[in-house]
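Supplementary Methods, section 5.1.

A reviewer requested that the exact input to the structure prediction be made available. We therefore reproduce it here, unchanged from the version used in the analyses.
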Amino acid sequence: MDSKAFDLEQEPASLRERYGKNGFGQAALAACRLVEAGVRFVTISLGGWDTHGKNFETLSKRLLPQLDQTLSALIENLADRGRLNETLVYCAGEFGRTPKINKNSGRDHWARSMAAVLAGGGLKAGYVHGSTDGQGMGAANEPCTPDDISATIFHCLGINPHQELITPSARPIQLFREGKVIEKLLA
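The structure derived from this sequence is encoded token-by-token as follows.
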């Protein structure tokens, strides 16, 4: 890999601005450049989502504007560079948040429902899969699990999600025991 991939000054100032002049935005731009340089797997993160207090203030003033700006810039830029169809973008947290607000104007951990954004990499564009009930308490239709999403990602990468690996001690281990490819997501 060419170390010039990390030189964001090679990009126009307007594009650097489009991603956001913050650590997350510039990391996403670097991720795009790394993909162009041939790197096959890149991870970036934006912390601070554990909003047990001041949920709405934290989301509206800091987290959501930054995520919206950066994620849309990344997807748009990958598409403009002809890389989106071969690059899978995955954006999710580790779990959902409670539909009900706690006494600290926050939301707590909630595993029954959550959202993820997937773009490119052999997936349908603009497709929404599943929904929650009216209160956001759980899946209303087309439920899927994190294992299902992972199995779908593996499928898009050309890896059989049900492949069995053998450990050095001859113990068989499946990549995903429960996960099923979500066929409706595939382009």
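Helices lie at 13-19, 23-36, 55-80, 146-156. These observations are discussed further in the main text.
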